[in-house]
Amino acid sequence: MQRTTTFTFIGLFLLAGLFSCNNPSSRTSDEQSDSAAAATPASADNKQADAAAANGFDINKIPVSDASIGEFPFFSLPEGLRPMNKPVQKKYDMLFFPIDSVMTPIEGKVWRTYVEAESGKYDDWSPVFFEKSYDEAIRTAGGVKIFEGKVSREELDRIKEKATYFGDEGSIDYWNDPVRVYVIHRADGGDIYIQLSGNTAGGSIQILQKTPFKQTITILKADQIQKDLAEKGKAILHINFDTDKATLKPEGKQAVD
């Protein structure tokens, strides 16, 4: 009886030791920290940057990118993909971007296009490949994702009359497809905004670089008008009216005077 009790005590002692070794709570704080670090995904920094950018967008809180990214529109299409038609490129235009879930107008250089597989076959198109290709390329250039999801119908109804380009080449189907929006913050103020979406048939991408508006209208003086009339038989005046109104802008009044 005594021997049995002794062996039982030793067995319980060994089991307690094994349980202690396998119990996570018995590890040192350093060991637990090392395990947590090993489990942290490599993309944690990107996710933290995305979360910070999406939580009340402020361009001044986005890290400035000094990456060399070449000429506008900066990015080629992924391998095996092509524009569905000729991309639209304008020196100065406006696009709406969903920022903090609000469709926000931004002006500057614009490039937009529909994208499809080079073969033209739906079976060769992958929205995952399209979106991941741009996600990695934009992040390599110092970009941060500031929005991902669908825009509310109320927001779309609010701006649809101003977004006259909706339905044109490179338009995004906000009504049906979720959209991803990125920004690359540049030190010179030429911030780059990119939005893209994809579905089972194809994708859309829009790239805009903020640029200051440059006025190209000059006011013709009376003597120049008289000279044009004498030499050409006509004089061309640029008279600016207020949008959708019959009233003149200040520079329009000056031209008439």
How would you explain this protein's 3D organization?
With 257 residues, the chain is α+β, with helices and mostly antiparallel strands. The chain has three domains: 2-39; 45-210, no CATH class; 222-256, no CATH class. It contains seven helices and seven strands, in the order αααβββαβαβββαα. The chain has helices spanning 2-22, 29-39, 44-54, 127-140, 153-159, 222-232, 250-256; strands at residues 81-83, 88-99, 102-117, 144-149, 179-184, 192-198, 203-210. Strands 1, 2, 3, 4, 5, 6 and 7 form a seven-stranded antiparallel beta sheet that branches. It is elongated. 19% of the residues are buried.
Average of pLDDT = 83
The major pleated sheet works out as: 7 strands, antiparallel
According to DSSP, the number of beta strands is 7
SSE run: HHHEEEHEHEEEHH
Strand-pairing-aware structural class: alpha+beta
- Give the CA-CA distance, first to last residue: 121 Å
The percent of residues in helical segments reads 25-40%
* Strand percent estimate: 15-25%
Q: Which spans of ≥5 residues are poorly predicted at pLDDT below 50?
A: 1-42
Rg for CA atoms? 30 Å
The number of helices is: 7
What overall form do the CA principal axes indicate? elongated
The count of domains is 3
Biased composition (Low complexity): 34-45
Protein name: Lipoprotein
Region (Disordered): 26-45
Organism: Compostibacter hankyongensis
